[in-house]
Amino acid sequence: MKVMLTLFHHSLPPWAGEYGGWKMEKTVKYFMDFVRLVVDRVSDLVDYWVVFNEPHVFVMLTYCAGAWPGGDPNAIEVATSALPTGVYNQALHWMAIAHAEAYDYIHLKSKNGRKPIVGVAHHVSFTRPYGLFDVAAVTVANTLTLFPYIDSICDKLDFIGINYYGQEVISGPGLKLVDNDEYSESGRGVYPDGLFCILIQFNERYKSLNIPFLITENGVSDETDLIRKPYILEHLLAIYAAIIMGVRVLGYLFWTTSDNWEWADGYGPKFGLVAVDRANNLAREPRPSYYLFSKVVTTGKITRQDRLCAWRELQQAAFQKKTRPFFRAVDKHGRMYAGGLDRPIQRPFILRDWRFGHYEMEGLQDPFSRFIRFIISPISQKKKIHYIEDDDVSYSISG
Hints:
Keywords: Glycosidase, Hydrolase
Active site: 217
Largest sheet: 6 strands, parallel
Structural class: alpha/beta
GO molecular function: beta-glucosidase activity
CATH topology: TIM Barrel
CATH class: Alpha Beta
Number of strands: 15
CATH architecture: Alpha-Beta Barrel
Number of helices: 12
Family: Belongs to the glycosyl hydrolase 1 family.
Strand order of the largest sheet: 1-2-3-5-8-9
Strand content: 15-25%
Order of helices and strands: EHHEHHHEEHHEEEHEHEEEHEHEEHE
CATH superfamily: Glycosidases
Pfam families: Glyco_hydro_1
């Protein structure tokens, strides 16, 4: 077993929040006091270091939206947050400075001749527009979140950690709940192809620096465990495909071992391979996905039979119109927001093939785009891809 230690996962001390937190330069000094304390005491026990987990998510929800503790932005800060001199870039600048200083200190204090491996856990979604008028919003979102922070610290990285959960469909000021897409309990669109695309995209940008990748988070909230099993297999196949294309991936961490507390949703969504019964002395019960994941880890293979069985189980539930919990608030326009629900609504399983290599992307859904497709559809031909399912074939995903 390897130890990966994260130094900052959104837990800003209240006293730091009172003076402005990561908007202020002095937070770098206070953070480095903490880093030195941790490194001096446990560096010989740590295999991988993550300095910051999802820094831009923390900055957006704390200093731009005011949804997380320690933010409380005023109207001017909110209105100007995305500008070059706004709080978004301001806070990320000081976090980048802190990352560089922490990186240097960890390498300076390495013990027992072991070379430390230091990186970042960077949240990435596959983002696409719902309609024609959402294209600009997607461009702005990608410009702000995809590469700027990694660019600012790329000379101080031993790996780039990717946190990937799925796709986000932007519609106006929110995220669209697409009726015929499958979602996790916490409103993340299930889309394994997106992880493949992200790895290829990031590899193209940083391959000259020879920085490897590590999937630091990938998982799905699913109390029924019916989505989780194919989710695991299809995302591992997406990673394997990226490796075949030349992307260096050091490893994969599934989120997560047991049901946990979520920043936006509390204990509602169930992410665990192991269920936690909070009404019965926190009793642990492994879900079926626990044994499936253990098999893949032990053998280093995904069998075609396991892939088919996991998918057929989910499709059977969809055919039977079964439902599962959904914890995301949705407005009358079908848009989701950051706020979670204390009590979930029930959402049906969706009859859509989202397996890796099978998902067919829809076009823009605004009236004008639909009209254009209607006009040209009689003269266009849609090429169908046929897949051969062979129960005797296995995918080897071991190094």
